[in-house]
Amino acid sequence: MATPCLTIKNLTLAYADYVIQQDLNFTVNQGDIFIIMGSSGCGKSTLLMNLIGLMQPVKGDVLYGEDSLWQADHQTRQRLLQRTGVLFQSGALLSSMTLFENVALPLTEHTRLAAGRIRQLVNYKLALVGLAGFADFYPAELSGGMQKRAGLARAMALDPEILFFDEPSAGLDPLSAKLLDDLIRNLRDHLGTTIIMVTHELASIFAIGTNSVFLDTETKTMIAIGPPQQLLAESKDPKIIRFLTRGETAARPTDSPKTPAV
Ligand SMILES: Nc1ncnc2c1ncn2[C@@H]1O[C@H](COP(=O)(O)OP(=O)(O)OP(=O)(O)O)[C@@H](O)[C@H]1O
């Protein structure tokens, strides 16, 4: 049976009085690769910030397992957030540090592990993302795909239960994007990490998404939830169909069971 990892309850997101999304209710289960999708500006990144403690919702709550993120005191919130890792669009590596130092940073900041143990863990994480042998390189000496994978190694440094990604494959060529998808799926399969990903890359959405939510700009709320393939095959909402077929299909034909091509 599916175990809830993150529960989003009646969430309303706003910048001051400007409501971005409201009445969001959904559950991310352990082991999901959960996609947050919707057109540009609908509020995907804003939702992510409310899930990772960087921005407080104006209403509702986020539960990590059974623990409230937003009713909790600061210390408890920090403890809950230590179970997470985040990879932002930019990869956010520190340019003045080598890959080794970048990946070691969360370990030196948040643990009391001995230097030798940290070295072992960093080398393991770099090997995990295919960057063994690049520990002494600086971010500027790497390709965009390698920088993303290094960012992933850093996000994985503290063995998070949940990994959040904001547009991980943005700016990558299709092959590097596919490699990153494969890596994300491997992490889920081998380490059991739950993945929550903001993206509008259709290839990634269909390749690795096990469940998804669709945020709508017009109504300012979610208008669909379900596995992406299922939404593509079954949704009757023109907005969802247009999005998932890159605008090639405006509405589902009623006389043909054929799935539109993507
Ligand atoms: N700091 C801010 N203050 C006020 N409004 C903001 C702020 N950040 C974002 N917004 C607005 O909130 C809305 C949602 O932005 P957000 O970046 O969450 O959307 P998104 O779906 O992630 O977009 P994209 O796909 O283009 O990255 C947009 O209208 C944006 O202009």
Walk me through what this model shows.
This protein is an alpha/beta fold and 262 residues long. 35% of the residues lie in helices and 24% in strands. The strands form two sheets. A six-stranded mixed sheet has the order 6-7-8-3-9-10, with helices on both faces. Strands 2-1-4-5 form a four-stranded antiparallel sheet, with helices on one face. Helix 3 crosses helix 4, helix 3 packs parallel to helix 5 and helix 4 crosses helix 5. The longest helix is centred in the last third of the chain and has 18 residues. Bound molecules: adenosine-5'-triphosphate. InterPro entries: AAA+_ATPase, ABC_transporter-like_ATP-bd, ABC_transporter-like_CS, P-loop_NTPase. One of its GO terms (molecular function) is ATP binding. This is Polyamine ABC transporter ATP-binding protein.
Short summary:
By secondary structure, this protein is of the alpha/beta class.
What is the CA-atom radius of gyration, in angstroms?
Answer: 19 Å
Global outline: globular
- Kindly, what is the distance between the CA atoms of the first and last residues, rounded to a whole number of angstroms? 32 Å
Characterize the main sheet.
6 strands, mixed
Please give the number of β-strands: 10
SSE class: alpha/beta
Supply the number of helical segments: 9
Low-confidence stretches: none
What percentage of the residues does DSSP assign to strands (E)?
A: 15-25%
Examine the coordinates and then state which fold CATH places here, giving the name of the CATH topology of the domain at 1-83 and 194-262: Rossmann fold
What is the succession of H and E elements? EEEHEEHEHHHEHEHEEHH
CATH superfamily of the domain at 1-83 and 194-262: P-loop containing nucleotide triphosphate hydrolases
The helix content is: 25-40%
